[in-house]
Specification:
10-stranded mixed β-sheet, alpha/beta, Rossmann fold, 278 residues
Length: 278
Amino acid sequence: MKTIIAAFDALKFSNSTKGYSIYFANISKAHLTGVFLDDFSYTSYKLYELVEEDGRFVKKLNELDKEDLETRKHSAKIFEDACKKEDISYSIHHDRHFAIKELIHETIYNDLLVIHSVETLTHYQEKLPTNFIQHTLAKTHCPVIVVPDKFKPVEKIIFLYDGTPSSVYAIKMFSNIFHSFKHLPVETLSVNTSNQSPHLPDNKLMREFMTRRFPKASYTILKGEPSSEIRSYLNTQYENLFVVLGAYSRGGLSRLIDESMADVLMKNLRAPLFIAHN
């Protein structure tokens, strides 16, 4: 059985992560683990809120800690009730130490991580991609799906392909986890510069590779600068997209599908991104 983990900031529970993770667990017949990042150093309150005019510090601290504990329990209950309603296999983990370290460690033993694009585990909003997301993507040991604010069922899959091992690896991982998505429209999108061949990189090998996995896939080859062309093209698609790309590799950067490409899509596209590095 495949295993999926869904990461939650229990103090700012993401209904989008809940919706997508349950949806993907159902599609792939996977066991779903809700990982609640209850980092001991992270609270809902700020230090200045602890001091009252009469100096009651400890009592105020205890009250706020109790409120946080109840919020965290309530978040876990929402997740648990949703899993029960959908009748999926599930479990719950509470990572109470350093959240990012524990989450990365959990990815060693799982097939997929689902996380909301805006997660920060801080009091403050950050520009996308957040530091927490960037660090997670760079260090993860399994593919990651970064999800947008609102859950929408997937209607079309687009693979970003540039002929590099990273882009092919992402398609392999996606195929292994989401074999049942074969009934959906699938498109392979590539961008060539003006002086390149109009064909796919490794055209014959790539088409054979796709035929064995997604035999009905279509192919689109654009001309121009990859980042702007991909962004513009994806924004013309009206279906509920699921975009697959190889990124945040530990080694060198891809010409087309690299860290900046993933960052661009997180900033500009309201669709789930399946991100894997080789």
